[in-house]
Amino acid sequence: MRFLTAGESHGPKLTAIIEGVPAGLMLSVEDINLQLVRRQKGYGRGNRMKIETDKVEITSGVRHGKTLGSPITLVVENKDWVNWQKIMSVEPVAEDDIAKRAFTRPRPGHADIAGGIKYGHRDLRNVLERASARETTMRVVIGAVAQKVLKEIGVEVYSFVREIGEIKQDPHVELDIVEGAALAENSPVRCIDPFAEQKMIAAIDQAKKNGDTLGGIFEIIATGMPVGIGSYVHFDRKLDAKIAAAVMSIQAIKGVGFGLGFEMGRLHGSQVQDEITWESKTGIERKTNKLGGMEGGMTTGMPISLHAVMKPISTLYKPLHSIDIDTKESSLATVERSDTCAVPAAAVIAENVVAWELAVAVVEQFYSDTMETLKASVAAQRQYAREY
After folding, report:
1. d(C-alpha 144, C-alpha 133), whole Å
2. CA-based diameter of the chain, in Å?
3. What pLDDT score does 130 carry?
4. What is the pTM of this model?
């Protein structure tokens, strides 16, 4: 499977085209809109979330509620476009109109200045409109389709927030994954620890009051993946590498770790590896899951567990020092409408990004022209692994 997205943050629409989804998958706009609603939630989001009630339109590749095997086109309208029609016009407009909203003071930490230099833009709005995290709307749309494929073969993907700023979830608070997921869905910061949740909310409020922003750490867990998905034979076929690259491609993500992650660098080998056992009913198992369900670039059959760090958002309401690229004089960075904290939303985005990579790996490994043949192939692989 593969995809392509297009669209600007304040353009008329965002578009995605997906190719390679098996035929016969039940798919509706409601399935996708559910994920879009989840993306827009989260304490610390800005005012745009009050404007954009995202809903998808499917314009190809689905007939009578089922995928056809042909490319699927998905479109989300930008409701805020009505306020930006002249500024973001496809047709030429008067120079005076451009000058009024020209963006020449880049924000530290954003793509503004590097993108302007790369593509030769003197109005940095040409950069920020595509570099904006608004683009992740379509990553969620695509991931929603992937999640439908995965559910058909018994794979579920979940997301949780572990840290926001200096506030951490109590490590002793542990719940069953499904129970924890339900609790996270009802938390404004996607945290399963109610005491940490209140502290996180207070920290976000304080950062907003200070004109500042907060980052954090979230975790993604995928259950039900068959053993041996991915490959050890070449670097570009290692599934953990593909997942890490995909999560790192989300705006503001600066690090990804599987299982114990960076903590492994401070431990001995005997404290890190997952010992292997054999059970008569289930076959080969692991006593622990410190490696996050991945060995040698392949799935082990244990839950895939990874965490990622999101840096604080680059747009500050008390902006940092920058320059004006036209005058070269010292200036404060431009202030654009933004969020104080988007870690909960980033967790949902990453959940869908991971779902896409898992679905792609499954579709590549098994016969998958139709959902029925895919399910049969996966079932055969599971049986083989149990009897190995």
Report:
1. 17
2. 76
3. 97
4. 0.96
